[in-house]
């Protein structure tokens, strides 16, 4: 009643309707005067675990004003966070299919770029924007936190070759077979951590993101599973699955057959 601003009569009708839909899920405890979950409870709606965890840790409104976490929690936030004043024009450009002029800091220093963004992504540590870079004449990833300024170029329209349909690395989907590392005594816990009862986890990921993901999850991508570091508890059992993947240069231990 407090959460949705309902009166007692409306709340009673809602509970009654729910019991008609799912008669074995709840029952009224005559002592506490509360509806309690029965042992035969079966959810009517499937909720993605990530959304459930967000609600539990940030509130139903996903950290909007007035919302509080539903349970006590502690989690590590991303250390690399994009500024909202940068994210806003990037998001508008993606939505409206526009060109953006940015200042960007890379290993070679700061430069000005004109990009055509079409998606954002997170590799587990940092947020990226996927875009066509007119300077490099290719589709690349830009770390959002490294963008110092972003301004939509009014009146400019993306060219046909700058359309996401032409980004082969983004559009190519991979199914990477990950298994517990053969040289580490970790098979049981890996199978439990990653819900792999048959011993194989098929990681479905875009080619453009594969290298980042394999790096963040410490996956040994060498052909002979030769990385000795104990942090590497997963092994890519078919390194050839990365053939032709540009981001594979980030995959730990991977060497191109060429």
Question: What report would you give on this structure?
Answer:
The chain is α+β, with helices and mostly antiparallel strands. Among the domains are: 84-161, SH3 type barrels (Roll), CATH 2.30.30; 172-250, no CATH class. The protein contains 6 helices and 11 strands. The chain has helices at 8-21, 49-58, 84-96, 168-171, 187-193, 207-216; strands at 26-29, 34-37, 100-106, 109-122, 127-133, 138-143, 147-152, 173-180, 201-206, 219-220, 234-236. Strand 1 and strand 2 (34-37) form a beta hairpin. The model has no long low-confidence stretch (mean pLDDT 92). Residues 1-47 form the DNA-binding transcriptional repressor CapW winged helix-turn-helix domain. Residues 85-151 form the WYL domain. It holds the Pfam family WHD_BrxR.
Question: Helices and strands in order, then pairings?
Answer:
Layout: H1 8-21, E1 26-29, E2 34-37, H2 49-58, H3 84-96, E3 100-106, E4 109-122, E5 127-133, E6 138-143, E7 147-152, H4 168-171, E8 173-180, H5 187-193, E9 201-206, H6 207-216, E10 219-220, E11 234-236
What descriptive keywords fit this protein?
alpha+beta, about 25% strand, CapW-like, CapW_CTD, WYL_dom, about 260 residues, SH3 type barrels
């Amino acid at each position: 009643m407090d959460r949705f601003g309902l009166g007692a009569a409306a709340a009673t009708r809602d509970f009654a309707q729910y019991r008609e839909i799912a008669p074995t899920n709840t029952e009224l405890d005559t002592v506490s005067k509360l509806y309690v979950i029965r042992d035969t409870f079966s959810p009517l709606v499937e909720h993605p675990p990530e959304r459930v965890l967000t609600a539990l840790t940030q509130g139903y409104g996903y950290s909007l004003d007035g919302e509080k976490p539903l349970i006590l929690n502690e989690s590590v936030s991303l250390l690399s966070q994009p500024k909202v004043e940068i994210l806003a024009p990037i998001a508008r450009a993606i939505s409206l299919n526009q060109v953006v002029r940015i200042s960007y800091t890379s290993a070679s220093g700061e430069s000005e770029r004109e990009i055509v963004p079409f998606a954002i992504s997170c590799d587990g540590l940092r947020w990226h924007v996927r875009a066509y870079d007119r300077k490099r004449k290719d589709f690349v990833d830009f770390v959002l936190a490294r963008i110092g300024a972003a301004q939509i170029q009014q009146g400019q329209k993306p060219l046909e070759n700058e359309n996401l349909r032409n980004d082969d690395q983004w559009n190519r989907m991979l199914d990477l077979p990950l298994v517990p590392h053969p040289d580490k005594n970790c098979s049981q816990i890996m199978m439990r951590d990653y819900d792999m009862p048959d011993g194989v986890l098929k990681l479905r990921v875009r080619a453009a993101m594969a290298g980042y993901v394999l790096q963040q999850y410490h996956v040994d991508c060498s052909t002979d599973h030769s990385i000795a570091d104990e942090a590497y508890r997963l092994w890519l059992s078919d390194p050839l699955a990365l053939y032709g993947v540009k981001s594979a240069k980030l995959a730990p231990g991977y060497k191109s057959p060429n």
